[in-house]
Write the structure tokens for this entry.
Amino acid sequence: MTKPKPVRASDLPTKRVRAPDGTVIHMKVVQADSATFAQDMLAAFRSNVRRIKSEQRKLARAEQDAAQA
């Protein structure tokens, strides 16, 4: 049996929604009835973690810069 092709986060569709505070959030959309649901979910999760960690690093750098100024 051959392994299925890995799913990349860029392969998943993105949906824009508004948060309760009015900010726009980009969400990866996963189809529940997809044959590759597990791979889709993992790709979406990794993408979200990568994005959140990047945002946290930017905020931490901005706080350091503000404290040094």
Observations:
- The CA atoms of residues 16 and 60 lie 26 Å apart.
- The mean pLDDT is 88.
- The chain is about 45% helix and 15% strand.
